[in-house]
Amino acid sequence: MYFPKQTKNELYRRLRVQLEHLKVPFTDDFVGTAAKSDYIIDAIFGFSFSGEVREPFPAVIRALAEGKVPVLAVDAPSSWNIEDGPPKDGPGKGYNPPALVSMTAPKPLIKWFQGRHFVGGRFVSHAIAEKYGFDVPPYQGSDQIVEIGSHGERL
Ligand SMILES: NC(=O)C1=CN([C@@H]2O[C@H](COP(=O)(O)OP(=O)(O)OC[C@H]3O[C@@H](n4cnc5c(N)ncnc54)[C@H](OP(=O)(O)O)[C@@H]3O)[C@@H](O)[C@H]2O)[C@H](O)CC1
């Protein structure tokens, strides 16, 4: 777990405590640890991301973009704008990870995404989906994710 910046958000503080109790190892060296990893989950930036990538993240985003280790991004490849998609320059230029999982519903940036796309969030009821105007994808059996194609079809 690379978690360089503590936020005041109580949920993230609790997440850290939970991971420590589970003995999940933490690292300050993202680039070195990433190079030795089999897989990376990118859940750094989502809705809150705006502007240029600030320290200490440029090297992290560059390593994600240029590394050979496969990445699964959560909601947004970090450095992408939720509405406008991938950055035209900066450390995230050219970053298009092989897989993305959209929590609850895909975000507008999905238009630019070229890898495998999954939707997760089976906890959303049909009533809530109807209220906010999105489709609940066809989850199979007890699956918590479903793979969705570029035209919204189940794969
Ligand atoms: N937020 C949610 O409800 C959910 C988020 N999910 C996933 O979690 C990650 C992170 O999502 P995000 O919403 O972006 O999280 P935070 O509000 O904690 O913000 C993270 C930090 O981002 C920093 N930030 C913003 N812009 C920049 C920038 N240009 N350079 C560097 N750092 C930046 C911001 O720092 P500040 O200094 O501005 O405080 C925050 O600390 C993501 O993967 C989401 O998809 C879950 O999916 C569920 C719901």
TrEMBL record:
Residues 1-136 form the YjeF N-terminal domain. InterPro entries: YjeF_N_dom, YjeF_N_dom_sf, YJEFN_prot_NAXE-like. It catalyses: (6R)-NADHX = (6S)-NADHX; (6R)-NADPHX = (6S)-NADPHX. The keyword Metal-binding applies. Keywords: Isomerase, Metal-binding, NAD, NADP, Nucleotide-binding, Potassium. Its EC number is 5.1.99.6. PROSITE patterns: YJEF_N. SUPFAM superfamilies: YjeF N-terminal domain-like (SSF64153). This is NAD(P)H-hydrate epimerase. It comes from Rachicladosporium monterosium.
